[in-house]
């Protein structure tokens, strides 16, 4: 099947406003995907369902490396059920029963995630249940939106992840052009989502409003920060973890000497850097329960650092801001800088400046060395 992924904002807008029924039903709703896939993977709805499942399984096997594609066997027919009980008080989004040409039966659990990641507990429970009987084969999780860029992935234990790119290149792109309309509509919707992912930074840099391009809630910021994560890691500025912070999108500097270091004078407290949306923040972790640092002690340390940073920074860019610290919380912001996302170089320059001046080679490092 020929697939056109929007490569310009004009093409993306045209696709978003074309009246695709998947978009109308709500691409961001997992129930929309469950409905379409329950038809795409059911032989009573069209003759290519078995081939489609074979391609999905082959892609999953090639990604996890645990099975060869030849071990799957030709599928004679398949039937798909929605919301099937799967483990202790759990339901899997789709359960595909595949009858092989050899006469054997296999059941393939599919979990669907658009803009949420799920939990480790959820996937561990379902993974153990899938391992309990030989009939369950090749559990997969489809990452169909912001979930594809999360770096904290709870599903890798048992469920092989397939992204929109995997599905387009490894599955739908290998189907013939004369597929039923519902398959074509779903494929076009996946291609439009891939366009949103690739064009998010362009959308931001051109100052365009996201609803006309189909960006859902914080979706554009997830894709923008994933773009930033890739260029920062390529420039070897640490390893960054992208996750949903609830109120905002979080890109946390994780494996680096410039983050998660003990606070000089209060060693039970740690300082670290992370993006909250487009603001690069310096924060402190006070600990939890009986090991939590006393609010008064934390407040004293934070206020001293705020004054020192203010004196050091002056009127330079990126622009410095600070908030009144609430030391009754576990994670407390000390100050933040608004990073310029207009070019790749401006992102790199802003982050390098802040971390270089404030981090382990700058102010906080000098305090630790005295």
Question: Which descriptors would you attach to this protein?
Answer:
single chain; 370 residues; alpha+beta; Yope Regulator, Chain: A; 2 domains; seven-stranded antiparallel beta sheet; five-stranded mixed beta sheet; 11 helices; elongated
Written overview of the protein:
- This protein has 370 residues and is an alpha+beta fold.
- The protein folds into two domains: 9-198; 219-369, Yope Regulator, Chain: A (2-Layer Sandwich).
- Helices cover 38% and strands 23% of the residues.
- It contains eleven helices and twelve strands.
- The protein has helices spanning 9-16, 21-25, 30-40, 49-64, 120-131, 164-170, 181-205, 219-234, 295-313, 344-358, 363-369, and strands at 75-85, 91-100, 105-113, 140-143, 160-163, 239-244, 249-255, 261-263, 266-276, 279-285, 319-322, 331-338.
- Strands 6, 7, 8, 9, 10, 11 and 12 form a seven-stranded antiparallel beta sheet that branches.
- A hairpin with a 2-residue loop joins strand 9 (266-276) and strand 10 (279-285).
- Helix 1 (9-16) crosses helix 7 (181-205), helix 6 (164-170) packs across helix 7 (181-205) and helix 7 (181-205) crosses helix 8.
- The longest helix has 25 residues, at 181-205.
- It is elongated and about 75 Å long.
- The model has no long low-confidence stretch (mean pLDDT 91).
